[in-house]
Specification:
Blueprint lengths: L3 H38 L2 E18 L2 E7 L3 E6 L8 E7 L8 H7 L12 E11 L5 E9 L2 E14 L2 E11 L11 E15 L1
Antiparallel strand pairs: 1-2, 1-3, 1-9, 3-4, 4-5, 5-6, 6-7, 7-8, 8-9
Length: about 200
């Protein structure tokens, strides 16, 4: 005959097992919810790449327009058109990669009077704000550093999704003297920069 004590002990153990099961089930549910929230809120991460990208500039010298380009893209981009407040651009280029299709001029541009690539090997941009613009465009504001000078610039850009990332396009104008580039050279103070940056998912 099973005593009342035995039945009580079995019921107690069963109750403990049920409580334990409920505890671990609840713990797994909470963990799942946290992971889902983190994953859902995570911005897509991208890496800028030279392949498929171009960074061109134009400037006038004695009234004649001269063009050039840079390569050596590096950095990290977090971008979500639905979450611009959390989006961020941290990108740099190789200053020594300057190419105007004239080797003598390029060597001069790498020198101390211009980009001084020996002491300042990279040109760096870090965003401070990404916001909505007009006609489906976005606005990018951030700090551009060339040599030892940093200036805040702002310009519109577009973002087009591709199979493996995003293509960002934009253009802006800067004054070379703001960055101590070129000194009293005969070239124009202002130059135009046109960006077409392909960034792949990281």
């Amino acid at each position: 005959m099973i005593s009342a004590v035995t039945i009580y002990q079995k019921d107690r153990r069963a109750g403990a097992e049920i409580t334990k099961f409920k505890y671990y089930s609840m713990k797994k549910t909470i963990l799942f919810i946290i992971v889902a929230l983190i994953t859902g809120n995570a911005l897509a991460q991208y890496k800028p790449t030279d392949q498929g990208s171009s960074l061109n500039f134009t400037i006038k010298n004695f009234g004649i327009e001269t063009g050039g380009k840079f390569t050596g893209l590096q950095g990290d981009i977090s971008f979500d058109p639905a979450n611009l407040n959390a989006s961020n651009f941290d990108v740099s280029i190789d200053a020594a990669s300057v190419n105007t299709d004239n080797s003598l001029r390029d060597s001069h541009l790498r020198g101390e009077t211009y980009f001084d690539v020996k002491n300042y090997p990279r040109i760096h941009f870090v965003s401070t704000k990404v916001s909505a613009g007009k006609n489906g465009m976005f606005m990018l504001t951030g700090k551009l550093t060339i040599k030892k000078a940093s200036k805040i610039i702002s310009f519109p850009f577009s973002a087009t999704a591709s199979n493996d990332g995003q293509v960002f396009k934009g253009a802006f104008n800067i004054n070379r003297k703001d960055f101590d580039v070129g000194g009293t050279s005969t070239i124009s103070d202002n130059l135009d920069v046109v960006l077409n940056i392909k960034a792949t998912k990281s």
